[in-house]
Write a structure and sequence with these properties.
This protein has 363 residues and is α/β, with parallel strands linked by helices. It folds into two domains: 4-173, 3-Layer(aba) Sandwich (Glutaredoxin), CATH 3.40.30; 208-360, Glutaredoxin (3-Layer(aba) Sandwich). The chain has twelve helices and 16 strands. The strands form five sheets. It has a five-stranded mixed β-sheet, sandwiched between helices. A five-stranded mixed β-sheet has the order 8-10-9-13-14. The protein has a two-stranded antiparallel sheet with strand order 4-5. Helix 6 (182-192) crosses helix 8 (235-244).
Length: 363
């Protein structure tokens, strides 16, 4: 099957003529710890049919998760019941995905998102033809498939427990896939949220200022200003605050070249910038006027703003960045390269001073 990227075997291609998106992954608790077989679906995920999902997606686009399972496979049942049965997992999936479960040995006729009807012809050891199409061959069970809004499919075969499913879900739900490879995202996710812990505590290295303080300091001792707009409900925002901005070499550079400001996008504080007063009006969405204004109403996070030494707005970025991806962005501005050349030209010749082959250089 040439439609799906297999995250284990590295098979990949773009999907064509499919109007959907989907996601998920999960593992498994050792079967030895569970004596009895589970025959009842006790998951709390609100599973939908392919046909229902297609209609819902056309009306309101969200990622789509397809869970491929074997009804006679204990590990599939345990994953279905003990991982999807967790409130925190099910609630996240129900809110941010269109979830579908499919028995790979189903005998149903299924109309896929491209309008083609698939049946179980019995040609593939009893595996349904659609499961073969989606997995690129006889699927490992359980498997979880994801189609992004750009119709690029990914399959995550095998087992993942509660700790391992969340980075996959977050990667797609928060659009980190648009800027970062999954393997790199997962690496920094586990540095921020080690398995078994809610969050690792860090000594804060970046010297964060208040909004007023940063721009007042810039008047007396000119530096550029970086304003990080974070949403407490965004995991990737937390990952950037703790592992990107707080990377020792990144933080050292930021402290030297910038005054840095952290603003909660739902703060209740009254903020003043350039003689303009911004408040939180208490609207249903909860967002403060300042981030709404500077993000032009496009509330996508992580997000940060950059101003020059004269407090002129230079740029905004609204995507997750690892420390490796963040370094050229801040150096392009901090070293005034933006005055000499275009970003794309700069990036082509950029050589990292902080990282070597993905590993941090020792200073």
């Amino acid at each position: 099957m040439d439609l799906i990227k297999n995250r284990e075997y590295k098979k990949s291609t773009n999907m064509k003529n499919i109007i959907l998106t989907c996601v998920l992954i999960f593992p498994f608790y050792l079967l030895a710890q569970h004596g009895a077989k589970i025959n009842i679906d006790t998951s709390k995920v609100e599973w939908k049919s392919f046909e229902e999902t297609n209609k819902l997606f056309i009306a309101n686009q969200k990622p789509v998760l397809i869970f491929l399972f074997d009804n006679n496979d204990d590990s599939s049942k345990l994953m279905l019941n003990e991982v999807y049965g967790l409130d925190e997992v099910a609630n996240y999936v129900n809110a941010l995905f269109y979830p579908i479960k499919m028995d790979v040995f189903s005998t149903d006729t299924i109309t896929f998102f491209d309008g083609i009807k698939y049946t179980n012809t019995g040609k593939n050891k009893g595996v349904h033809d659609l499961a073969i199409k989606l997995a690129g061959g006889v699927p490992q069970t359980p498997s979880n498939l994801i189609f992004t809004k750009e119709a690029i499919g990914s399959v995550y075969p095998g087992f993942k427990d509660r700790d391992n499913i969340f980075p996959v879900l977050i990667y797609y739900a928060e659009n980190a896939y648009k800027s970062t490879d999954y393997e790199k995202f997962e690496e920094y996710y586990f540095k921020t949220y080690p398995p078994g812990q809610k969050q690792i505590m860090n000594r804060i290295l970046t010297k964060w200022k208040s909004l007023d303080e940063a721009f007042e300091l810039s008047k007396k001792s000119p530096k550029k200003v970086l304003v990080n707009l974070y949403n407490n409900y965004s995991i990737s925002c937390t990952m950037m605050r703790l592992k990107t901005f707080n990377n020792p070499q990144i933080a050292r550079y930021l402290n030297e070249k910038f005054y840095c400001v952290n603003i909660n996008v739902k703060t209740k504080d009254t903020l003043k910038l350039f003689d303009q007063v911004y408040i939180n009006e208490g609207a249903t969405h909860g967002y403060h006027q300042l981030p709404i204004s500077f993000l032009n109403g496009k509330m996508k996070f992580p997000a940060f703003l950059i101003f020059d030494e004269e407090s002129k707005f230079l740029d905004r970025k609204q995507e997750y960045m690892t420390p490796e991806a963040f370094e050229p962005v801040i150096k392009f501005v901090g070293d005034n390269e933006y005055k000499k050349q275009k970003w794309n030209s700069y990036l082509k010749t950029f050589k990292s001073g902080f990282f070597e082959q993905g590993k941090e250089k020792v200073k």
